[in-house]
Amino acid sequence: MTTALDDFGTGYASLVHLKKFPVDTLKIDWSFVLALADACNVGIVRAIVNLGKDLGITTVTEGIETYAQADPLHYEGCDHGQGYPFSRAIAAEQVPLILCSYDIGWTPGERCSGSDRRLIEFAYQLLTQTTAPSA
């Protein structure tokens, strides 16, 4: 199980939580993405990403709406992005269809390892349950 600290940099998602909880992922709040033209916001994102790297914590930026926003975040070293360029919000039953549309080197029934295995096997179960012909 992993723990993510959501909306990092705003409200209650503060530095004290990094000491208090076993955090694996920092999710950088979308408000910093909206104003990336502002050097101050770029500096804040850079600081959060560097903090994550120094502590061995994965960084995810939320609310990316364009590839133009994703590029500087990637340049600053953010591990992952979340937003419309990657996928719009989808229903749970669509997840397996999307996973199966990517060439991830896995075929149904094949064993995988780690968290990938759990995700892919769950998605495959969902896919077969939602696409199986009714009797």
From TrEMBL:
Pfam families: EAL. Gene3D superfamilies: EAL domain (3.20.20.450). Residues 1-103 form the EAL domain. PROSITE patterns: EAL. One of its GO terms (molecular function) is cyclic-guanylate-specific phosphodiesterase activity. InterPro entries: Cyclic-di-GMP_PDE-like, EAL_dom, EAL_sf. This is EAL domain-containing protein (Putative c-di-GMP-specific phosphodiesterase class I).
